[in-house]
Amino acid sequence: MKILQKVCFVLLLTTFSSVYGGSCGVDGDVDDCRVRAEQGDARAQFNLGLSYYNGLGVRQNYKEAVRWFRKSAEQGIVRSQYNLGRMYATGQGVIQDYVMAHMYWSIAAVSGDEWSIENKGRAENIMTDSQLSESQKLAREWMRKHQ
Question: Are 84 and 92 spatial neighbours (Cβ–Cβ below 8 Å)?
């Protein structure tokens, strides 16, 4: 099972190689990743978030995954914005909150992220008008602050 997890993680890193060019997190070695992430490297923050989300090289910890995804999302990493939306929608590492999920998916959707566009639409089908309004307001504020 551990080998399958590592293979999946390597495939994820290969898929997102445009996000981070280093070997951050591969083979369970996250030391380089952590150093770079703590220095503010958005790509390393994303990959450290993936490590905590998937539990590769570190003990799985959704709260830590949220922490690192949030840092990289604030620096424009679209996959982190999408992942935060997913984590808020499912309550992984945070209290389940469709307003926040929709907000993060809305932010990623601006960049054309298809998964975010799709999930944003699904969330809209179950949200009230006031929740949608709040999410849109939060997304505008977030965009002004971070971009």
Answer: no
